[in-house]
Amino acid sequence: MSAGLKVGIAGLGTVGVGVVKLLREQAELLCLRCGREIEVVAVSARDHGRDRGIDLAGLRWHDDAAALAADADVDVVVELIGGEGGIAKAVAETAIAHGKHVVTANKALIARHGTSLALAAEAAGVTLQFEAAVAGGIPIVKALREGLSGNRISRVYGILNGTCNYILTAMQESGRDFADVLQEAQDLGYAEADPAFDIDGVDAAHKLAILTSLAYGCPVNFDAVHIEGIRHVSAIDIEFAAELGYRIKLLAIARPTEAGIEQRVHPCMVASTTPIARVDGVFNAVVAEGDFVDRTVYEGRGAGEGPTASAVVADLVDIARGIRVPAFAVPAAELAQLQAAPMERHVGPYYIRLSVLDQPGVIADIAAILRDEAISIESMLQHGRADPGEAVPVVLITHETREASMMQALDKIGALASVQEAPKLIRMEML
Amino acid sequence: MSAGLKVGIAGLGTVGVGVVKLLREQAELLCLRCGREIEVVAVSARDHGRDRGIDLAGLRWHDDAAALAADADVDVVVELIGGEGGIAKAVAETAIAHGKHVVTANKALIARHGTSLALAAEAAGVTLQFEAAVAGGIPIVKALREGLSGNRISRVYGILNGTCNYILTAMQESGRDFADVLQEAQDLGYAEADPAFDIDGVDAAHKLAILTSLAYGCPVNFDAVHIEGIRHVSAIDIEFAAELGYRIKLLAIARPTEAGIEQRVHPCMVASTTPIARVDGVFNAVVAEGDFVDRTVYEGRGAGEGPTASAVVADLVDIARGIRVPAFAVPAAELAQLQAAPMERHVGPYYIRLSVLDQPGVIADIAAILRDEAISIESMLQHGRADPGEAVPVVLITHETREASMMQALDKIGALASVQEAPKLIRMEML
């Protein structure tokens, strides 16, 4: 049997502890599957004394994560510190510089510095792996990098943030509004005390930038992602969506268009009969559409100790088995600089909700504005009647429309005296 | 750049032609992803003259597939002849004996001879790959062999036959009976002229035997699979299922039990809210549950030129990239001889439909038989009343029951004078 694979773990939070537990519990199985042992030999964390429920005896302790990354008796460094730069980046760079493989669960790091880290790793002859960075429980990085290799990907999209999906599902099921459900999610531990990173779409955007690079063989381009969160989704929109046969999900979508590669994270109306519409609660799902394979769907837990540890260990198993595939499926030096499509060039159908005074001529004014922007209406929905002078919600569904035209039309519509609130827009995605 | 990978294709049916097309259309992309070319250099089929819509000029033609398998200028043999033994087996064995890697889409071959072929391949230092053999469009072999490596699999199950799922979906949607929908499926090309292999569950069982070996690290044991098809599923059962909140699917299920590894293919009642219940038409899906990752779901097309070619090429890409993983995740010599659980030891809830005369005492007789076998009833459903002397359907749902007890009870119930037809049984699966 080959020598064991010596692992150093930087960061002993939930995931780090999970990785240690998994490697210990499944040691025999992993040895059989890899033909060699995978052994944690060194760890690093801020607080040496804290009880983490695992025995650290016999492991080398580094107070300094960078020192762990340079530890001569470590083959692979597992970076679980988090954050897009700082120590996490230094740890990855140091490990690579010392000829060690790097496994990370850090989506912010890969979304920001994935290309340069991949270049460095390839120059050093080591691998950079990050299955846990996108939808922990779903082996989607491997699917895109290997399983779907024979395909051009026409679209990749998914539900990549469990917190948002939990909130939207709870809103759907209970009819309650966003703030109320967010509070509950925080009480239950499904949302952070500071939830901005999740509910404003940044976390999903990090993951999308990584998937885009894997699917299209281009450098990671997080800055090109159009990002909207779910704060503006209201109970009434979810109700209208249901009436129209749709559900509202926070989707992260990448696809090649005539204007370039489109990357966007925003609430979406999706037909309730599609597989992604039925992914509820904290579950994640990714759909990858290929020219030969057609639609493939992957669903699982997106976070948590077990699923994330499972993904980290899958990467370690690959390394132990001697599997060497470029981080983004093609050599980092050959990633193609693809044009990023600006959001103004996006084309698709839109759901628009207006709050208008129930008086003659209002719809005519709105229709005229849409006509002037060459926006074609597929359907219009109005419920009930208001007393004279009171507002009533009106919902419009458009045919395929260019985002720039839609925005101009909404500016003009919002300026009408009879329109009482800023118009609400939710993009529709044909799946 | 490394030398190209030279591929010989044995069998130029739909899939063989698809593989040639894919390798040609995506040549540039594949070269980038593999760092070398993947080139078809030789082919073999029965009829040289037939127009297949692809240009065979420049390819070495072998009338004899075994000669192709021995072709000195071929690195990988792709076996697409089909059949569990005969030429297909000879081609795989010859290729391995000549030091060539083997890629196959042949589930019958792997279900029957997978272990011995894997042993031979490992002895020869070549790989045996069969992603296309199970649910073509879904990279589930790779997921089990690599992506979920860190887990003990507590259950793996799926919809593995598109023909059966198409028929059951159409029955569900139209209320029509089996024979009627089968005829339509045949007219549409979704079912073969001789559909036995699909609708009697054999095809799904081949695939299940392969998944079981991958999931549990045991030799492929096709003979241990309990197999039932869908011929006995009737419209009335689908209707009762819907009323109870269930759908009927042909599932293939493997799991470790106290009695050993259970492998079974049969119609199942599954709660309509579960992901697998919503997989409709010709789509396939696999659910793998791991102790760390929890539930993972994979969905895609199970067959067809494009999806199957995609899977074959994924295997070729692995080989071109130098990825070498044992065929069944652990070295073939170390596959563990696990006890196979006999079906009599199966334990689960059952759906039973009886056709009984609507007269006093019938239910008491049935209840007494169930009591004597220690079978506990969860619910009972009866619709309408028949005229005296006519039969009425009665549905029973049991709590967890042992298969052997259930069978004994059904024998006795079937022998009651008031029971008009052989009792119908559909197992329920808690997902």
Q: Which descriptors apply to this entry?
A:
homodimer, 431 residues, alpha/beta, Rossmann fold, Dihydrodipicolinate Reductase, domain 2, Alpha-Beta Plaits, 10-stranded mixed beta sheet, 6-stranded parallel beta sheet, 14 helices, elongated
User: Quick one: which chains have the greatest interface?
Assistant: A-B, 56 and 57 residues
Name the assembly state: homodimer
Write down the Rg of chain A: 24 Å
Write down the CATH topology of the largest domain in chain A.
Dihydrodipicolinate Reductase, domain 2
Overall pLDDT metric of chain A: 96
The level 1 CATH classification of the largest domain in chain A is Alpha Beta
Given helix and strand content, the structural type of chain A is alpha/beta
> In angstroms, what separates the terminal alpha carbons of chain A?
49 Å
The CATH superfamily of the largest domain in chain A bears the name Dihydrodipicolinate Reductase, domain 2
In the CATH hierarchy, what is the architecture of the largest domain in chain A at level 2? 2-Layer Sandwich
The biggest sheet of chain A amounts to: 10 strands, mixed
Number of helices of chain A: 14
> How many β strands of chain A by DSSP?
18
The stretches of 5 or more residues of chain A where confidence is low (pLDDT under 50) are none
Helix content of chain A: 25-40%
Outline of chain A = elongated
Whole-number count of domains of chain A: 3
